[in-house]
Specification:
The chain contains three helices and 14 strands. The protein has about 280 residues and is of the alpha+beta class. The protein has one domain.
Length: about 280
């Protein structure tokens, strides 16, 4: 008698859990912080002046982002503030230009393993379509609490192409580098997603550290009823792959380096490309 009742009860619990998982959706707010370091080989600048320049360059990158997610899809974009977003700042001749307006949307599809990203560059709109990167995460035993959730550490080592100034600081050289990506995820939110392009862990990624770039979990809202979840697939811009877009950026940077090479330092401008 008991065994006859136990099976239907277990089946009911399984169906309820499955239904909850399929309906799980929400919004996550992240704080983004990017630390951009400047290498300046100049006897005319003191360490205090270099530190001040670094601080000026870091300010535009302290922003809030929102991840709107369902079980299989998500949108990622910068949050708009009352003061409005600004991609430019200047201070006594130092000029920083970040590509993008701050309104671009990144769409991820976890089932099809693809993404679509709006991106503005040099005044033109592009639509990057490509496959999601397969992060080969290594799970660590380290645990910490983030926003009331138990989070586990995961690490991924990524080999990338980078450009650095030559020893004499006269030209850019292409080389290989290994970057360490550290993520903290929680099994308490069973969504294999996270900020920006990061994904592939068995729970929501709450925190990411990738070079000088970091994302910090602020809060989450599940299954909102007043403002239901609506996930959009970007459609605006010239369609390119990630490789094509990166090559275009590299060509533009090389042209700017050649254009400003040899000019007086007082007239030079520093330009940093955004996400």
């Amino acid at each position: 008698m008991i065994s006859n009742l136990l099976f239907p009860l277990c089946l009911l619990i399984f169906c309820l859990e499955t239904a909850f998982s399929q309906q799980l959706s929400g919004r996550v707010i992240y704080k983004a912080s990017n630390q951009i370091l400047i290498r300046i080989d100049s006897a005319d600048m003191s360490m205090e002046e270099i530190a001040e320049a670094n601080e000026i360059m870091k300010k535009p990158w302290e922003r809030d982002f929102i991840l709107t997610f369902s079980e299989t899809e998500s949108n990622w974009m910068q949050m708009q503030t009352l003061a409005g977003s600004s991609d430019r700042t200047s201070d006594e001749g130092l000029f920083i230009s970040l590509s993008g307006s701050g309104n671009e949307i990144l769409y991820k599809n976890l089932v099809d393993r693809r993404y679509v990203q709006e991106q503005e560059f040099m005044g033109k709109e592009f639509l990057i379509k490509d496959a999601l990167e397969p992060f080969d995460w290594k799970l660590e035993n380290e645990i910490k609490e983030i926003g009331g959730y138990s989070a586990q550490k995961a690490i991924y080592h990524q080999i990338v192409d980078v450009q650095r100034f030559s020893t004499d600081m006269t030209q850019m050289e292409k080389t290989k580098d290994t970057l360490q990506i550290i993520a903290w995820f929680t099994l308490e939110i069973p969504i294999s997603n996270g900020p920006e392009i990061y994904q592939g862990l068995p729970g929501l990624i709450l925190e990411v550290h990738h070079g000088g770039r970091s994302y910090y979990f602020q809060k989450v809202e599940f299954n909102p009823t007043l403002n239901p979840i609506a996930i959009k697939i970007p459609k605006k811009g010239k369609v390119v792959t990630r490789e094509q877009f990166d090559m275009m950026q590299e060509e533009s940077i090389n042209k700017m380096n050649n254009r400003y090479r040899g000019k007086n330092e007082d007239d030079s401008k520093i330009r940093i490309g955004g996400e």
